[in-house]
Write a structure and sequence with these properties.
The protein is mainly α. It has one domain. It contains two helices and no strands.
Amino acid sequence: MRREAQSMNADEIKSISEHYRRAAEELLYAYQRNKEAARHHESGAFKAASHHVKLSKNHSFIAHEHLKEAALKSDHLKEVDVFYGVGTAPVSDRKDH
């Protein structure tokens, strides 16, 4: 049963990582649309600015949904680890943060 839990954990970790990646991507898009909205606003193109603000808001919402899903799955993963006594999940070997 412990092996099954570890296998399940690996799949969950990949899924959580994908949610974080997609959230970061959506936040980048939101930031870019927001910058574009500011440029349009400064030049007096208020209709275009409004359009880009709506796009930015939509991207932010999608990012928020991905982060909520990642948090939910992460909490579930912690509960499974505690139940099966698996211990901590593998840690990333990234050194850039």
